[in-house]
Specification:
This protein is an alpha+beta fold. The chain is 56% helix and 8% strand. Among the domains are: 102 residues, no CATH class; 188 residues, no CATH class; 76 residues, no CATH class. The protein is built from 23 helices and twelve strands. The strands form four sheets. Strands 1, 2, 3, 4 and 6 form a five-stranded antiparallel beta sheet that branches. Helix 3 packs across helix 4 and helix 22 packs antiparallel against helix 23. The longest helix has 29 residues.
Length: 585
């Protein structure tokens, strides 16, 4: 999406090849036009029915590869058997199935370990399954480590689309020649992934920008795969309902479908920029809406370097410290203050710039925490970095979904034991917040306790945060830095000004509850007194009135908490309950 600082001169070399014309735009190329309408006949034009036209063909292609995955898995299983289990009639069905599966698996793949076979098959199936594999690579709470480790090597790349086709796509989307908008577009792409590729460009008025263009045919392929995956999710729900496959697949399909519409990425970039408007050292690319469509994204070019490149002469020691502080502030704020975060964060999607600035790019995939979950995540992370073991286990359990037969209490105890072991090892310097969270989620699978996909995406962001920070400063104390940043959020969130704003926002809800609560309390009290009077007419039990009022306040407070009500709603109710109990006679 961007180039390293030292490559910028190459990207804007005015001495463009002669074959591309005087402006470097490829003027010798003319897209084919319709004889009837004179309009561009673009193979890129999306047919809404195309995902369904290729459904059957794609189904058999996927079926063939999935069968090969199962066959390859059985072959790998039989090969891994000890010699004594391969003799005579031992393990007959496994060996027979492996033998019958041999023709399904290509010879050059057959002898590879199963995790490698799985990765290669996902790459063969194309961008949707590559992205599915990348999400599965994060689910160390469900899958074996040897599989998740290999899936992290998935190649999210396809062959480069020729510049002539890219130019045709631009003309089709702009309804005009790109020459009217850009004085130069570099024919060589800056990067090429499975969904889109990027090119450096200069606008007519001299802006240095990056054009991100969705590749032809990708949208139809992805939407076809999404339709098939949703069918698969419904089928798997009958077989393994305890793993909630339909919900997981629906979440993945929702993320992926949004990535093929670049307007979503433009919206995300502008949302991030607004959230960090008060932090000039945390950068998100400016979007040029006049050059942006569903299939073309035009954004600001960042000049800098990737964090995994050589930064020796590029940053001073002070700049490195600024990068660490700014990066930590950005990621922790995204996760625990805004609840809106970069969900595909890795070193390739970060740019380090002069002055310690940090830029975030490739914003097509974002995660969102609902307000209730965001608060619980904030309290959970705060408990982790402050060493509050019981609090961390309690807040993590509050975010869990318990499947049939699950045991939340056992899960909470197991997490507490894990955290105690981690804090004991932290004295030796062997401490990773991200790894601790991953292992906590992994414990959930054993107890049939599961978590939203956003939590695994959060872990990916934390892994990047830790990795980049330690690369810049191997002696970095990640928990201490995290505690500083999370304390800043706590102070801001619970400052008098913030609490006042929250009180004002909740005033209509508070008034509504205040209006309805006396009637509810009176109705409840009348019902209770009627039942008492029916049992005994000797005493009106006046002394119970205050107890009933206290109980009603407690019930109201509990309801407010369960419904996610703000503190200023439930706290007064509990205080009233105390007053009725102490002074009501």
């Amino acid at each position: 999406m961007t180039t390293d600082h030292n490559q910028q001169d190459e990207a804007v070399n005015p001495d463009a090849p002669a074959s591309t014309g005087s402006n470097g735009m490829g003027n010798t190329y003319r897209p084919e036009r319709s004889v009837l309408t004179g309009q561009v006949k673009s193979p890129y034009k999306f047919d809404p029915l195309s995902p369904y036209k290729g459904l059957l063909r794609r189904f058999f292609q996927i079926h063939r590869n999935v069968s090969a995955i199962f066959g390859g898995g059985m072959i790998a299983y039989v090969k891994a058997l000890p010699p004594e289990r391969k003799k005579g009639l031992r393990s007959p069905w496994s060996r027979l199935f492996a033998l019958l599966s041999t023709p399904l698996v290509k010879k050059d793949i057959r002898n590879l370990p199963f995790p490698v076979q799985l990765r290669k098959r996902l790459e063969m199936l194309g961008p949707t399954y590559v992205k599915l594999g990348q999400i599965l690579a994060l689910r160390e709470d469900i899958l074996p480590q040897n599989i998740t480790r290999e899936l992290k090597n998935l190649l999210d790349k396809l062959p480069v689309v020729p510049f002539e086709v890219i130019r045709e796509i631009l003309e089709f989307n702009y309804k005009k020649s790109p020459d009217e908008y850009f004085k130069y577009i570099d024919p060589e792409p800056l990067g090429s992934a499975s969904i889109a590729q990027t090119h450096y460009a200069e606008t007519i008025d001299g802006k240095r920008v990056v054009l991100k263009v969705v590749k032809p045919g990708i949208k139809s392929l992805i939407l076809t795969d999404i339709n098939l995956l949703k069918m698969l999710g419904k089928f798997l729900s009958w077989i393994i309902p305890q793993y909630q496959p339909k919900r997981l697949i629906d979440e993945f399909c929702n993320y992926t479908a949004k990535e093929v519409d670049l307007n979503n990425e433009a919206d995300n970039a502008e949302t991030f920029a607004a959230n960090f408007a008060d932090h000039p050292h945390i950068m998100f690319p400016k979007i040029y809406r006049e050059y942006t469509t569903e299939n073309v994204l035009c954004m600001e070019l960042f000049e800098g370097k990737k964090p995994d490149s050589d930064l020796g002469d590029f940053l001073t020691d002070d700049d490195k410290e600024l990068v660490i502080q700014n990066g930590a502030a950005a990621i922790i704020r995204m996760l625990y203050k805004d609840g809106f975060f970069h969900a595909d964060l890795h070193p390739g999607n970060l740019m380090i710039m002069k002055g310690g600035k940090v830029g975030f790019i490739d914003l097509g995939m974002v995660g969102r925490f609902e307000e209730k979950i965001r608060r619980q995540m904030l309290y959970y992370f705060h408990a982790l970095v402050t060493g509050d073991i019981e609090g961390a286990a309690r807040y993590l359990s509050a975010m869990a979904t318990v499947s049939k037969g699950g045991n939340l209490n056992e899960f909470r105890r197991s997490v507490s034991d894990l955290l105690r072991r981690y804090y004991l090892h932290s004295a030796q310097g062997d401490f990773s917040l991200a790894k601790m969270i991953v292992q906590s989620l992994g414990i959930g699978a054993r107890h049939k306790v599961f978590f939203p996909v956003e939590m695994t995406l959060m872990v990916k962001a934390l892994v990047t945060y830790e990795g980049v920070g330690l690369a810049l400063n191997p002696k970095l104390d990640v928990p201490a830095l995290s505690q500083k940043q999370i304390n800043d959020i706590f102070r801001e969130q619970f400052s008098p000004a913030s609490l006042t704003r929250e009180l004002i926002r909740g005033t209509p809800e508070l008034i509504d509850m205040a209006v309805r609560l006396p009637k509810l309390m009176a109705d409840g009290l009348r019902t209770f007194e009627d039942s008492v009077n029916n049992r005994s007419t000797e005493s009106p039990l006046d002394g119970l009135r205050s107890s009933v009022l206290a109980g009603a306040c407690i019930v109201g407070g509990v309801i407010a908490i369960v419904q996610g009500g703000a503190w200023f709603i439930w706290l007064p109710l509990f205080l009233l309950a105390v007053l009725f109990t102490v002074f009501g006679k």
